[in-house]
Amino acid sequence: MSATPSPSATGAAGPGTQELAAGSAAAVRALQVALTAEHAAVYGYGVAGAHLAGARQKAAARAWAGHMAAQDTLAAMITALGAEPVAAAPAYRLPFPVRNAPAAILLAAPGQPGRVSSCSMTAAAASRSHSAAIRSAHGHQNHQLPSRQRAT
Question: Are 40 and 92 contacting, i.e. CB atoms less than 8 angstroms apart?
């Protein structure tokens, strides 16, 4: 009786391996897009928080911490798939200058153009099959700074 080496022992790919590899590659791409968006959100909330005080600054700090946690989760997911997580850029272009509290509030306001939160960017960029994992990693959908007035 002769023993036949298993496909894993010979390095040969079994049926479905290419589909699994393609799925993993798609997952990595979607997760990298989400991680890039989280990097931008962390930067944006840092900028916004620097121009805020009191309850608004605390809310921005909580949102910033949530995005930092999402970064960690996404990076771990990417690493688990055997890829290197994309690094954050040293700075990001904001949609408008943020030089005061009203601009910072607008930057961080849900539903506003230029909003810091990356959920909408993530959902648009990620494939449907991976968006649930991204939402799970993100854990929070909206961050809203307390406001008695709207920025103009």
Answer: yes
